[in-house]
Write a structure and sequence with these properties.
heterodimer; A: about 200 residues; mainly alpha; Rna Polymerase Sigma Factor, Chain: A; Arc Repressor Mutant, subunit A; 10 helices; about 65% helix; B: about 90 residues; 3 helices; elongated
Chain lengths: ~200, ~90
């Protein structure tokens, strides 16, 4: 449906790609202290983690620091990966915890606004949505204005390429709540677009 | 797709199908067939696709980051076990 998604994914390994040496094998080697495996892991996941953290924080330097902290946590904790989730959702969950720790007490909140983030918006009905008239660039700008929890759930579902159950796992909430939050995020986005349309 | 309590099919796609479609994840044949013939769901799918495209374009515009510094030494195994090394 959307080829664009595949275009912006993280870079893949070059050369042969032995399934036994896929993500779990990479983590196993990192756990054994292989620096080249860590470098390969960064090439595979660094960009997607950075994009997600940047989307949530909106601050490049901070996002870079959080990615560094995340990769350090991977280096130190690779042996703790049990294969109960995909490596992608595992590393993104680590990045989320790093982000939460960094933002705790700051003006940006990721977790504390989750309640508000799940409340339905009060925008116009589906038949008159501003989204129907919006251009991609307008939507992109409006996403930047969303609450962090809304940017976060949108990024996990559409930017990081996680399935709904994986998003639920990362956010530690039920799948139904993920759907509610996504719906609330879209309603908020529509509200921003509506407001911008009125101000033109 | 949504199902009503009597087991008959509700006439529109459920949110999970719409989000999966916008995320580029596989949806079932029935969902695709329904979408092809339902204007209501096409509008909803287009809205979710636009939101998803907006997120992905932001991700695509994210600047490159520098490779992290060499990881610090740690206790434990000194190097990879050659028997498990990927070539």
């Amino acid at each position: 449906m959307n080829d664009l998604h595949r275009d912006v994914g993280p870079p893949t390994f070059t050369g042969s790609h032995d399934p036994a040496c896929d993500d779990a094998g990479l983590l196993r080697r990192i756990g054994q202290g292989a620096e080249d495996a860590m470098a390969a892991f960064y090439r595979e996941y660094g960009r997607v983690v950075f994009a997600q953290v940047l989307l949530v924080t909106g601050e490049r330097v901070l996002a870079e620091e959080i990615v560094q902290d995340t990769m350090l946590a991977v280096w130190r904790g690779a042996g703790s990966f049990r294969g109960e989730s995909s490596v992608r959702s595992w590393v993104i969950a680590i990045a989320r915890r790093q982000t939460r720790d960094r933002l705790r007490g700051q003006r940006l909140r990721v977790v504390d606004d989750a309640f508000l983030a799940d409340q339905p918006g009060s925008g116009p009905g589906p038949e008159v949505m501003a989204l129907d008239r919006a251009e991609l660039a307008e939507v992109r700008d409006a996403i930047r204005e969303l609450a962090p929890a809304h940017r976060e759930v949108l990024g996990l579902a559409f930017g990081a390429g996680l399935s709904l159950p994986e998003v639920a796992g990362v956010l530690e909430i039920p799948v139904g709540t993920v759907k509610s939050r996504l719906t609330a995020a879209r309603a908020a986005l529509n509200g921003i677009l509506e407001k911008k349309g009125q101000n033109r | 797709m949504n199902a009503d309590p009597t087991g008959t099919r509700y006439p529109h796609l459920d949110l999970g199908d719409l989000i999966a479609g916008a995320a580029g994840q596989p949806t079932g044949d029935r969902a695709r067939e329904h979408l092809a013939g339902c204007e209501h769901c096409q509008r909803e799918a287009n809205r979710w696709n636009l939101v998803a495209d907006g997120v992905r374009s932001l991700a695509a515009a994210a600047p490159e980051t520098a490779q992290p510094a060499r990881p610090p030494p740690r206790s434990g195994p000194r190097g990879p076990d050659e028997s498990s090394r990927c070539q």
